[in-house]
Amino acid sequence: MEIERKFLIKKESLPALETCPFHRIEQGYLCTDPVVRIRRQDEEYYLTYKSKGLLTREEYNLPLTKEAYEHLKPKADGIVISKTRYLIPEKDGLTIELDVFHEIYKGLLLAEVEFPSEEAANSYIPPQWFGEDVTYSSKYHNSNLSKGTSIPG
Questions:
Q1: What is the pTM assigned to this prediction?
Q2: Domain-embedded: residue 152
Q3: 129: domain range?
Q4: Looking at 29, 69, 105, 140, which residue is catalytic?
Q5: Is 29 a catalytic residue?
Q6: Count of domains in the chain?
């Protein structure tokens, strides 16, 4: 089960990222209803299924080989999304995953925070540098961004 909140971030509000660990991510969607995603994260490859939902969704990750990923990538519908994900320590042992998008979505910054329970998610007070809470807007789901039909911003 994945329980997460998602926030827009304004570039001028960003904390220093130079010392934060990060991942280079490329992902495409074989299907968006239900969500079936392929992802390259650095040199690891995954096939992911996500159920419907906004705050809480089922999520299953299966490992892929590089060859399987490369075989499936041309079959992705729409845009293959490219981003850098910074991992920023947060209070209460949480981690902020800050996605800095590239290419067509350059300038889009989204932060996600995963929680152990819906209660923890609902009581979370985000840092001041967070912008609008877009948890309940499916417009900012990567699966919808992959369609490239309505670029947020």
A1: 0.93
A2: no
A3: 2-145
A4: 29
A5: yes
A6: 1
